[in-house]
Design brief:
Radius of gyration: 22 Å
CATH superfamily of the domain at 56-184: HUPs
Oligomer: single chain
CATH topology of the domain at 56-184: Rossmann fold
Number of helices: 7
Largest sheet: 5 strands, parallel
Structural class: alpha/beta
Order of helices and strands: HHEEEHEHEHEHEH
Shape: globular
Distance between the termini: 62 Å
CATH class of the domain at 56-184: Alpha Beta
Number of strands: 7
Length: about 220
């Protein structure tokens, strides 16, 4: 088969474009993963903790894999809430987490189980199990707080998730005290974990932008 010169030139140009695109993508990935840039972007998401005595701890859930296996960020949030409870900063914990996918294990129940295992009494734990996103977390918690006559609460979530959560609460007329999980993600040096950290930062920045566009914050 004879390849016409113009077709051959077109093929070579396309190949060079693909190579250039791959090189640029690789350089961008290296810039994001192996430089301080993700940590600098992370600062936009962080909110300093304001740990004061409160009536309750509002604990935002994340993901669960099975009824007995929580995602890493969910575990960190639960353990942090338990520590704050045992320090005496509040005597009630409200867990807010519902299934984001049909058939997904019940997040709030799984988190409650871990809290019980850390010594938090069942009578001190309340569940909100219908929320599907951060805005519903806060809105549904507001309803429950009014029902329980809770005026002042600490908000526990991952540090990267705190700014969006606090801004969402303020937009809904709820003032919460930030009690973020200690930021351990920025100290990770593993290549795979750094890549996950970078994707998480970009995702959260995108979610923050989306919430602003929707007028939720």
């Amino acid at each position: 088969m004879i390849i016409r010169p113009w077709k051959q030139y077109r093929f070579i140009s396309l190949f060079r474009l693909l190579v250039l695109t791959s090189v640029l993508f690789s350089l961008a990935a290296l810039l994001l993963v192996f430089t301080p840039l993700p940590n600098l972007l992370y600062r936009v998401l962080e909110v300093p903790p304001d740990l004061q005595p409160a009536d309750a701890i509002v604990l935002l859930g994340s993901h669960v894999y099975t009824d007995n296996l929580l995602a890493e960020d969910t575990v960190q949030r639960v353990l942090h809430a338990s520590r704050l409870y045992r320090r005496g900063l509040a005597d009630t914990i409200i867990i807010t987490c519902g299934p984001t996918i049909t058939g997904q294990p019940q997040c709030a129940e799984a988190m409650r189980t871990v809290l019980l295992e850390t010594g938090v009494p069942a009578t001190k734990i309340y569940l909100e199990k219908k929320s599907r996103n951060t805005r519903e977390n806060i809105n549904n918690t507001l309803v429950l707080m009014k029902k329980l006559k809770i005026q002042r609460a600490l908000l526990v979530t991952s540090s990267f998730h705190m700014r969006r959560s606090i801004l969402t609460a303020r937009a809904l007329g709820l003032s919460l005290l930030p009690a973020p999980v200690s930021n351990y993600e920025k100290e990770i040096s593993s290549c795979i974990h750094r890549a996950n950290h970078t994707l998480m930062v970009l995702r959260e920045l995108g979610a923050l932008t989306y919430f602003r566009i929707r007028g939720w914050i």
